[in-house]
Amino acid sequence: SAGSIATGGKISLAQLAKHSHSKSLWIAIDGKVYDVTDFLDRHPGGSKILAENGGKDVSKLFHSIHPPTTFDKYIRPDQYVGQLDEESLYTLSKETSEEEQRIQATRDAMFGINSVVSLSDLERLAEAVVPRHAWAYYSTGADTEAALGENANAFKRVYFRPRTMRDVSNTDTSTTVLGVKSSIPVYISPTARNGMGHPEVGVRSVTALTSQGEAAVARGAGEAGILQVLSHFASKSLDEVKAAAKDGQQVGYQLYLQPDREQSAEAVREAVKNGAHSIWLTVDTTIVGGALCIIRKSEAHLMQLGKRETERRILAQELSPAPHGQPLNRAPLDYGMSEPKMTWDDIAWIRSLAPGLPVVIKGIGAWEDVVLAYQKGADAVVLSNHGGRQLDFKLTRSAQPPLKTLYDVHQHAPDTLHQPNFSVFLDGGIRHGTDVLKALCLGAKAVGLGRPAIHAVSAYGSEGVEKMIMILQEEIDIGMKLLGVTSVDQLGPEYLDTSKL
Ligand code: FMN
Question: pTM (2 decimals)?
């Protein structure tokens, strides 16, 4: 195949477009054309999205979802066909969809970052400026979204019991998270595909490699001094993220165990080689939870788009419901996150692959499992329901918000909260510094932020992430002074009224 076409090695968009069927499937990325015919059935994200993009330039779509290392892993040198010609490159650089124009106009009209005073400001701005298909992916929860809503609501049902007449002129919001010095008791939870929210428009530039997505999160987190945990499905590789990070800045690596254990072993070894600080094994995705909601949102959006064909097409392929006869409630983007055979014994296996690195079990929803994780030798757990994206309440009210799980740990297994070599973290619904304080009062060592970091980086890049952390720090500091404490280790259950939880 390779080389059989190109006259003078250069290919036009028209020539590319001819190879759009399963017998000959070409795609262009960053000006280079590849023959991916024999990759159709092997594409980890499914053949559908690849088939629908045959004969096209897919640079933007590819880079918003995959780190460049993905490419080297799957594409062989002999699949390279040739380069796009100058005219095609020029056409592509000028091509902007209606959605891109909408985003650009919104960004042009955006206020400067100084006008941002809360995490909800960042959320509103992000909703306005991220591509709509990315917003559908970022914002949704499973099924009825009851679990998603309840994560944040739970914090509202816990009241403070502030103490006064104490000298609070000097307060210290800092702590350590798994040995890492941290300006506030907060870290960045792993979330997939941070690059979708602020995709590069036009031809990919070199600076974009280190200035967007998870690389930008790394810069913001580094400036403000907190730990970032990189998702298994990040848009950037750990390598790229470390390159963007400060010297000595720590980055954790999150793992989704794969049915093919050797593949997972390789992923952990690679993370260790690239300097991961810790391994965060996500355990609440033994099957991908109900995603009816994301499908509903995207269908409604498709109708709203009417005849805006390009966007319709992109949305339809990324978010369409499963074909007839297959289970309905699968999020098409969330392939590769489930391994139903995982058990507690896998902790020892992960540890053997990453000697000396902290192993964190993420996605605990019952206090009994905190005790088990401790007994099985984990260094920490994250009480989490995956940001309300997995097990939903529905009518049976079967899943609980992480804050309630923490309360149960405090009630039934308080010893696990006070171990020198074991930490209990929590994520889900943290939107204000006082939420952080409430979790710490109940015994969490630190809390994770998922969506807020996505909002911040989508709206303002690394500066947004830094700003988000500064806002939280100020809210935590004010909250501590008003509670009557001067350091985070003074926080305890005596500062809360949990009777409404
Ligand atoms: N958790 C993981 O362990 N790995 C992931 O790749 C991952 N991707 C996510 C993608 C999105 C868009 C969101 C919203 C969450 C994701 N999560 C993932 C869950 C987060 O780590 C975290 O548990 C959750 O977002 C916390 O809730 P919050 O968004 O209310 O802060």
Answer: 0.88
